[in-house]
Specification:
This protein has a domain at 237-308. Helices cover 34% and strands 21% of the residues. It has twelve helices and twelve strands. The protein has helices at 7-32, 34-45, 85-92, 100-108, 125-133, 158-161, 169-175, 190-194, 196-199, 237-246, 284-291, 313-323, and strands at residues 46-51, 58-59, 65-77, 117-120, 141-150, 164-166, 185-187, 204-210, 216-223, 231-232, 252-257, 264-270. Strands 2, 3, 4, 5 and 10 form a five-stranded mixed β-sheet that branches. Helix 3 crosses helix 4 (100-108). The radius of gyration is 31 Å and the shape is elongated. It starts with 6 loop residues before the first helix and ends in a 12-residue tail after the last helix.
Length: 335
């Protein structure tokens, strides 16, 4: 009869050791690392959708609207819901006027995989229709309504008002601490840039529950966005439009000032540009053509041009002659 260790006891100890290993692993997952995995599970079930605020409006001295906002359909993506980023970018590029590289750049620029990233602002009707019809194939996509700039009077004082455009990677690195992220729009020039902090407003958000396919189930919590501050200018809309019409087809600048207060009532520069071109994606070729235009349409000739002053005393002499009735306002003199 063998005096070795009984086989039954060997089996018992093997089962006990395996059980203790499983118990230890369960303790690690549920107790030691439980909070971490609970947070991961919550992030897989919950999404935070940012809600962009309406940008502050811009009015003339009489309260007439120069720059306002309108609703636009914007396309967002949640990177965490993507299985294959490359194939997603390749398929989506066939629906949008965006390259695969640009789509991937935006996705990879997200601060968090659970953060919604704006891929395209102000979708055209054709883009909206095609994407809406294929949303089932793109569960990571979201179509949300966001405010975008509108110019009800047309391009009024574009050099003064300035433009709004999509934030660059350099600006994101510099302004990330202020809440800016990929796909945000920011003042680029003029008053839009000077008063960015006041005009931008404060973002809101929605915490939504999603199913296994990333589809929204319900809204759990919502924080309304805060609109930006409105801006009232000294510019008079009628005088501004008249100054712009006088310069149409010419090179030059017109400044109308109230001599009693120093208020600028109109400031026009020509050649000019249309700020509406910058409210959505602008074709690189069109941008390059504007930037390299020898007539320099982005230059505000009223304050950025360098000119010889001429004989400024002639203005005083001319005013005296008019006051004494020696000349008529319509007379011209070559100096």
């Amino acid at each position: 009869m063998s005096k070795g260790f009984p086989k039954g006891k060997w089996l018992f100890w093997v089962i006990l050791i395996v059980f203790l290993i499983l118990l230890g692993r369960m303790w690690q997952l549920q107790i030691i690392e439980g909070e971490k995995y609970r947070q991961l599970a919550e992030k897989n079930r919950l999404r935070l959708e940012k809600v962009n605020p309406p940008r502050g409006r811009i009015f003339d001295r009489k309260g007439r609207l120069i720059v306002g906002n309108k609703p636009s359909f914007d396309l967002f993506v949640v990177p965490a819901d993507l299985k294959e980023k490359e194939s997603f970018a390749r398929e989506l590029s066939s629906f949008l006027d965006l390259s695969e590289e640009e789509i991937l750049r935006r996705i990879n620029g997200a601060r968090s995989p659970f953060e919604m990233v704006r891929l395209k602002k102000d979708l055209s009707f054709e883009e909206l229709s095609r994407i809406s019809a294929n949303l089932w194939d793109f569960p990571a996509l979201r179509i949300l309504i966001s405010p975008t700039r509108v110019y009800p009077q047309g391009p009024v004082a574009p050099h003064v008002i300035g433009t709004v455009g999509e934030i660059t990677q350099e600006e994101i690195r510099r302004l990330r601490d202020k809440g800016y992220g990929v796909g945000d729009y920011i003042g680029k020039s003029g008053l839009e840039l000077q008063y960015e902090e006041l005009l931008r407003g404060k973002k809101g958000g929605r915490q939504v529950e999603v199913d296994a396919l990333g589809r929204r189930v319900r809204v759990l919590q919502e924080i309304d966005p805060q609109s930006g501050w409105d801006l009232y200018l000294n510019i008079d809309l009628d005088l501004q439009l008249k100054a712009q019409s006088l310069l149409e087809g010419k090179r030059g600048a017109i400044v109308v000032m109230d001599p009693r207060s120093g208020e600028i009532l109109a400031m026009a520069s020509s050649p000019s540009f249309d700020p509406r071109e910058f409210g959505r994606f602008i074709d690189p070729e069109k941008w390059r053509a504007l930037a390299e235009d020898p007539s320099h349409p982005f230059t505000n000739r009223a304050i950025q041009g360098i000119y010889a002053p001429g004989s400024v005393f002639k203005i005083i002499v001319a005013l005296a002659a008019l006051a004494m009735g020696q000349v008529e306002p319509q007379e011209r003199f070559y100096c």
